[in-house]
Amino acid sequence: MSAKIADTAEQSENPVRVVFIGGLGRSGTTLLERLLGQLPGVMPLGEITHLWERDLVADEMCACGATFSHCEFWQRIGKAAFGSWDRVDVERLSALKATVDRTRHIPVLAGKKLATDQHRLVREYASYFERVYAAAAADTNARVVVDSSKHASLAYCLRWSPNIDLRILHVVRDSRGVAYSWTKKVRRPESPTGEQMTRYSPTKAAMLWNAQNAAFSLLARRGVPVRRVRYERIIERPRKVIASLARFCGLDLAESDLNFIGEGWADLGPSHSAAGNPMRFTVGRIPIRTDEAWAEDLPESTRRMVSTLTRPLLGRYGYLNEDEPAPDDGRSAPDDACRVHSQGGGE
Predict the structure, then answer these.
(1) CATH number for the domain including 270?
(2) Which of 47, 90, 117, 339 could bond 275 through an S-S bridge, CB–CB 3.0 to 4.6 Å?
(3) How does pLDDT run across 195-221, given as a tens digit for each residue?
(4) Domain count of the chain?
């Protein structure tokens, strides 16, 4: 029988503070990253889970407009983190990802102990991310780096690193809006071949919505600070929500630091987001408004199907209408704008 490793490794003296934005794609995670990225002391990095294949191998475009190999920021990060990007063993990293960073591995990663061999692999895998985070923080003098990778399995891997001060922003959106968004055709502008973003059927989107959101709820019970925020609340009260989330991230802001957010708009500066939604390329003033096209364009039968599949969490997150009562499980009261969960806090 394999030896076991205790689940709380002693944190290093100077861990890098990482705010990990989690949730299912098409839930507003890129918008949240862009808004947080305008705050002083914050460095948004995009979806680092895709950095290795899309940028290091495929040399796709950074949000600054340069290809990865010609982006001065990312070349500095590669040199500081690894000596050079050429020294990163992408095949080894891919093998580690397949071994530890999959949704099916979450039950093991969520435990209080890991088998010795598994612990070694998880730590090795997380070390690639640690180095990128630390290099980016040092390069920009950032107090916080933001990784909008979204995937719960990666967050579970990162929780085992003593070199990361991990905080989770769990973004939820009405499952019916998410399912509708996944049916849309969206071109990836960074792809030289005109590749489209992945699309899911409403059924698959609903099941993924359940899995990802449930996983982040469990992570909150494993001692990791988790703040849950609804996409719709970000849209309704962006300035108030960002101010609240900044405190969660450990930032002390002046009121003027939020002047980039106005009534129904926000001003976005350039960034070096490595991967993610095409919105990462947008610079300038953007509208912030409710997107409820799904309410009219999603067929009634599909809407009911998605509602049925996701009903327990829809109720917990406060999305059910009065004519769609939530199961009486004692956990379905609507959220406040944001909630913090920690070990023993529950929901």
Answers:
(1) 3.40.50.300
(2) 47
(3) 767 888 999 999 999 999 999 989 988
(4) 1
